[in-house]
Design brief:
About 45% of the residues lie in helices and about 20% in strands. The chain is built from 16 helices and 16 strands. The strands form 6 sheets. Strands 12-11-10-15-16 form a 5-stranded mixed beta sheet. A hairpin with a 6-residue loop joins β5 and β6.
Length: about 500
């Protein structure tokens, strides 16, 4: 990089001004360079002698002029061409200079790459001692603008025991990483949303960047592994402190927690992956949903679900119960827990949530009624009529008339008798969780559509692809990233 040239005088509207340095964006005043107004000089003097003048950096202007020339040739060559030809031509021309533009901006923005950077002393990131550059070393980083190559100063600290580059520190380039942080984000999101091979192909098509499917896999799983560590630490901390481990992001309105499961094909067999959704209910709709998924038993999944619910406000103290003469008990925010009736969901709720309302998903309950109708009447109009009547009764009047109908039903076969016995137990066990008229009157949700939907769009769309068989860690790491992405998109569930 060339050194600073002496400033030259120019005439502008009858006033003498000094040229602004391209390399360091300084002003030249009375034989010296200043980044700001010299402290001993009054503002009026500088204003008269060195007015603020916009000067475009020569390296950037040169690149843009070349780009303009290329685009002009494109227009001359493709007269009356279709839009597709023009847009692809412009895209290719812009892509061709992106990395060069980024390099020019980098060299102008980083103090360690300015001419004075060669003689400046830089603090060691380990011990704080200051050192000058002993050499200049090349570095290449893949970015969303393309391959970026540059040389930067390299310092050696005997006390710290290692070398370092102030440029790397300022740019946030850690270790020997070859991908920029933004490019890693793009790669990881692609690997979480679709297959690793397809993500690499789409990235190349849409951005022109070439990243191998194996790199996509490694980066995606590394991101998911970091999230897994954070999830485990948060769950442990909540268990120990009974307070949210992460900064609170309270769900608006009524706090709702839904839980379900989805089957995933692992290398050894099919296993259930448990899914949790934590959201707020406002004006009858779920909003601000956050997601989590884990292949684990309730004893492992429960603490993780509690940690996320705590982050969304489940452990907030809203009141204190008891008299002033006795130890007072904290009253926590009420949680509505929705599930399909599986016992593990209610055990989990009892173990981890305080004040709560447990609700069996209405549509799951209806599926049980249809199973009884088919067992009693087969695939007939009578079965449809019986099931429709019981669904209406359950919605409008609650579980009591349904239990009466189940008690009065006569099974035509031993198989039907087994179904009838099982479903009578199901409705008896969950009777208090099926007070649908009361729940509706209170404005509470009666359907777990959010978690049902997440089983499809979170788990099945990625993990149930044709021929896919997952390792335990691979599936978990990908799901961690998918849950994070879904949680970052505020939408009605």
């Amino acid at each position: 990089m060339a050194g600073l040239a002496p400033a030259s005088h120019q005439e502008l509207s009858g006033r003498t001004v000094h040229q602004v340095s391209v390399e360091r964006a300084q002003v030249f005043y009375q034989g010296k360079y200043y980044r700001k107004r010299p402290p001993e000089v009054k503002r009026s003097a500088v204003a008269r002698e060195v007015p603020m003048v916009e000067v475009h950096p020569t390296p950037i202007v040169g690149i843009l002029e070349q780009l303009g020339h290329t685009l002009q040739l494109l227009a001359q060559r493709e007269v009356d061409a279709p839009l597709a030809v023009l847009e692809m031509g412009v895209l290719e021309a812009v892509r061709a200079v992106q990395a060069e533009l980024l390099g020019a901006v980098l060299r102008l923005s980083q103090r360690s790459l300015w001419p004075s950077g060669a003689t400046r002393q830089w603090p060691c990131p380990h011990c704080g001692d200051r050192h000058g550059a002993q050499s200049w070393r090349p570095r290449t980083v893949a970015t969303v603008c393309g391959q970026l190559s540059f040389e930067r100063p390299w310092c050696v600290c005997v006390v710290g025991g290692s070398g370092f580059s102030p440029t790397d520190q300022a740019l946030g380039l850690v270790g020997q990483t070859r991908l920029s942080a933004v490019l890693v984000e793009w790669v990881v999101e692609g690997g979480a949303r679709t297959s690793f091979a397809e993500a690499a192909a789409l990235l190349q098509r849409w951005t022109g960047l070439v990243v191998s499917p194996e790199t996509v896999r490694q980066r995606t799983e590394a991101s998911g592994a970091a999230l897994e560590t954070a999830h485990e630490a948060a769950a442990q901390q909540v268990q120990e402190t009974r307070e949210a481990a992460a900064p609170l992001d309270p769900a608006p309105g009524q706090l709702v927690v839904e839980a379900d499961g989805a089957m995933v094909h692992y290398r050894d067999a099919w296993h259930e992956m448990k899914i949790g959704v934590v959201a707020g209910q406002v004006a009858g709709k779920l909003v601000g949903a956050s997601y989590l998924a884990q292949r684990a038993g309730p004893d492992q999944f429960g603490p993780r679900l509690l940690a996320e619910a705590a982050r969304r406000g489940a452990l907030e103290v809203v009141d204190w119960a008891g008299s002033p003469l006795q130890p007072r008990l904290a009253v926590l925010r009420e949680v509505v827990v929705l599930g399909d009736g599986a016992p593990w969901i209610w055990h989990l709720a009892a173990d981890h949530f305080g004040q709560r309302v447990e609700i069996v998903d209405f549509y799951h309950a209806c599926e049980h009624l249809w199973a009884v109708a088919k067992a009693l009447y087969g695939d007939t109009a009578a079965a449809t009529a019986w099931a429709t009547a019981q669904v209406d009764a359950l919605r409008e009047h609650g579980v009591a008339p349904v239990q009466a109908a189940l008690a009065a039903a006569q099974a035509p076969t031993p198989e039907a008798q087994d179904v009838l016995r099982r479903e009578r137990g199901y409705f008896r066990t969950n009777a208090a969780r099926m007070a649908y008229p009361t729940f509706r009157a209170a404005g509470l949700p009666i359907g777990s559509g959010a978690v049902e939907s997440s089983a499809r769009h979170l788990v099945q769309q990625r993990l149930k692809r044709a021929g896919a068989r997952w390792s335990d860690t691979g599936a978990q790491y990908v799901m961690n990233v998918r849950c994070k992405l879904a949680s970052a998109q505020p939408k009605a569930a």
